[in-house]
Write a structure and sequence with these properties.
Blueprint (H helix, E strand, L loop, with lengths): L1 E7 L4 E7 L4 E9 L7 E6 L2 E6 L5 H14 L9 E8 L10 E2 L2 H9 L7 H15 L5 E5 L9 H4 L5 H7 L8 H14 L6 E7 L3 E7 L2 E5 L21 H10 L3 H10 L2 H6 L5 H9 L3 H24 L5 E5 H6 L1 H10 L19 E2 L8 E4 L4 H13 L1
Parallel strand pairs: 1-6, 6-8, 9-12, 12-14
Antiparallel strand pairs: 1-2, 2-3, 3-4, 4-5, 7-8, 9-10, 10-11, 13-14
Helix pairs in contact: 1-3, 7-8, 10-11, 11-13
Bound molecules: adenosine-5'-diphosphate.
Length: about 400
């Protein structure tokens, strides 16, 4: 069985083609700058990489070219080999609690919920419509970023604001990165052969969120009404005092949207370090003795520490803390700093074991109060697995 996992953005389309018989990746790639000058695609398969500039007027063009290339490169012999298409969808509000077959109702809901994810939901619809046009008979499955977090209690997801904001306008915590956190919970439960774990899943990439999981279900998560909340991130501020927004509007003559834009795109590691949104650049400067780089690194680690500590208490201790995504999987000093910050909880890292990048590995010391693991995430595989399950 072959399944394509799709992540459609407003001007991009990422794909991974899986052979589900052995869960292996047959090919993957990216179509970029769709509808913009300089559009191009990259396809990787069999250890080869093909990159070509080509006119892509819209997502339908991208899907047609993708399928043409899969055929002409002999990656597949016929379009009939594609059994299903799984789409990463961002916002399903509180209606979508798990993945589902994509029907017209799902498409209508994605459009209706667009105010909750103005960049992502319309882009997801473009991806769905393109596949619907080009492969009309192939079943499609939607896998929502928000779905995994639907098990949170009211106490976790409500904000202490007028209740009518929730009732009338849907103001509540939704949470994101749900597919990644679900993959981490599933993987570590399999590794430890235990479905009743208390897990703190730390997805720390360019965007980042921490999730408390009990018995495979989300109890709380750090992102909120939007992905701007929670830990400090590459360019996002994470949690701040909301009064800063009106104060900066007045001081700098900006409107609310402009300030929110700065909090999304020019804050976090980039804003505080004034060096880069990429932790590799910041660590390099820190190692040269740059104080502002060190400050930004320490602050990043502190915000992650704070969430882990609060979820450790919420879960009444944890069995395992998992680090995943770009920073979580690859940054040895970042994991070390966070774990050292957690020493009051008895958490101890093994410095030798921690010398690991992008590999599933236990990194806690034997006398640590709680296991600590690096677990590489694989949202695409999770999407393909859900698709396989639902199209049968
Ligand atoms: P996205 O949220 O875009 O999927 P990723 O999960 O790929 O992001 O994370 C990308 C980020 O991970 C980079 O911006 C960088 O900060 C961090 N990163 C990746 N590799 C390393 C590394 N070796 N050391 C430190 N940070 C890293």
């Amino acid at each position: 069985m072959k399944i394509i996992a799709i992540n459609a953005g407003s001007s991009s389309l990422k794909f991974t083609l899986f052979n589900m018989d052995n869960k292996s990746v047959i090919a993957n790639g990216l179509f970029e700058r769709i509808g913009i000058e300089g559009s191009n695609y990259t396809i990787k398969y069999n250890g080869e990489k093909i990159k070509e500039e080509i006119t892509l007027n819209d997502h339908v063009d991208a899907v047609k070219i993708l399928l043409d290339k899969l055929l002409s490169l002999n990656i597949i012999n016929s379009l009939d080999e594609i059994d299903g298409v799984g789409h990463r969808l961002v916002h399903g509000k509180d209606k979508y609690k798990e993945s589902c077959l994509i029907t017209n109702e799902v498409i209508e809901d994605l459009i209706a919920f667009k105010d909750f994810a103005p960049l992502h939901n319309p882009a997801n619809v473009l991806g769905i419509k393109a596949f619907k046009e080009v492969l009309p008979h192939v079943p499609m499955v939607g896998v929502f970023d928000t779905a995994f977090h639907q098990t949170m209690s009211e106490e976790a997801y409500l904000y202490p604001v007028p209740y009518s904001w929730y009732k009338e306008h849907g103001v509540r915590k939704y949470g994101f990165h749900g597919t990644s956190h679900r993959y981490i919970a599933k993987t570590i439960s399999e590794v430890l052969n235990n479905d009743h774990l208390k897990i703190i899943s730390c997805h720390v990439g360019n965007g980042g969120s921490i999730t408390a999981i009990k018995d495979g279900k989300c109890v709380d998560t750090s992102m909120g009404f939007t992905p701007l909340a929670g830990i400090m991130m590459g360019t996002r501020s994470g949690d701040i005092d909301p009064s800063i927004i009106t104060y900066i509007m007045e001081q700098e003559g900006l409107n609310a949207k402009e300030v929110i834009d700065i909090l999304n795109k020019k804050s976090g590691l980039l804003g505080l370090s004034e060096i880069s949104s990429d932790m590799r650049d910041v660590i390099a400067k820190m190692e040269e003795g740059n104080e502002q780089a060190k400050l930004a690194f320490d602050k990043y680690a502190r915000t992650v520490t704070n969430y882990i500590a609060s979820y450790y208490v919420l879960l009444d201790k944890a069995d395992v803390i998992c680090f995943t995504a770009g920073l979580g999987e690859n940054s040895v000093p970042f994991r070390k700093k966070v774990c050292e910050n957690l020493r009051a909880l008895g958490i101890k890292i093994d410095d030798n074991a921690n010398q690991v990048m992008g590999e599933l590995k236990k990194i806690s010391a034997d006398d640590s109060s709680c296991l600590v693991y690096v677990v590489p995430t694989d949202e695409e595989l999770m999407i393909a697995l859900d698709t396989m399950k639902l199209i049968h």
